[in-house]
């Protein structure tokens, strides 16, 4: 029996480390929003404490079934009141540290899921 790796058309996170996240061969050095449908943009949030309700309102406006929130170097949960726009659209939000969010995004995107990862890349 011959095994071959699954091929996915979704963009993938190929690596991450202190101060960078690699998406489809390009290193990024700022917080990002990455979507399995091709969305890739900077996210104007350099650290967890800079989050506002507007960040989650924007995430709720995206066409996705699930948002994976990478909260930085450790797992932290946003203010529950800020999640109302997501709940109103019945969008799931999973919170984890950014490294775990990168791995989880790849698994779900590889399965063909319509997923978005909002990743805080904390800088010094």
Feature tags:
Hypothetical Protein Mth938, Chain: A; 124 residues; single chain; five-stranded mixed β-sheet; 8 strands; three-stranded antiparallel β-sheet; 3 helices
How would you describe this protein?
- This protein has 3 helices and 8 strands, in the order E-E-E-E-E-H-E-H-E-H-E.
- The chain has helices at about 55-60, 85-90, 100-110, and strands at about 15, 20-25, 25-30, 30-35, 40, 65-70, 90-95, 115-120.
- It has one domain (about 30-120): 3-Layer(aba) Sandwich (Hypothetical Protein Mth938, Chain: A).
- The strands form 2 sheets. The protein has a 5-stranded mixed sheet with strand order 5-4-8-6-7, with helices on one face. Strands 1-2-3 form a 3-stranded antiparallel sheet, covered by helices on one side.
- The mean pLDDT is about 90.
- With about 120 residues, it is of the alpha/beta class.
Write the layout of secondary structure elements.
Layout (H helix, E strand, L loop, with lengths): L12 E5 L2 E4 L2 E3 L3 E4 L4 E3 L10 H8 L5 E5 L13 H5 L3 E5 L1 H13 L4 E5 L5
Parallel strand pairs: 6-7, 6-8
Antiparallel strand pairs: 1-2, 2-3, 4-5, 4-8
- CATH C-level class is Alpha Beta
User: What overall geometry do the principal axes of the alpha carbons give?
Assistant: globular
Structural class: alpha/beta
Q: How many DSSP E strands?
A: 8
CATH evolutionary superfamily: MTH938-like
What's the helical proportion of residues?
10-25%
Order of helices and strands: EEEEEHEHEHE
The domain count comes to 1
Oligomer: single chain
Total helix count? 3
Largest sheet: 5 strands, mixed
What would you report as the Rg, rounded to the nearest angstrom?
Answer: 14 Å
Q: Mind telling me which CATH architecture this is?
A: 3-Layer(aba) Sandwich
Low-confidence stretches: none
Average pLDDT, rounded to a whole number, is 92
Proportion of beta-strand residues: 25-35%
How widely separated are the two ends? 50 Å
Order of strands across the main sheet: 5-4-8-6-7
Kindly identify the CATH topology. Hypothetical Protein Mth938, Chain: A
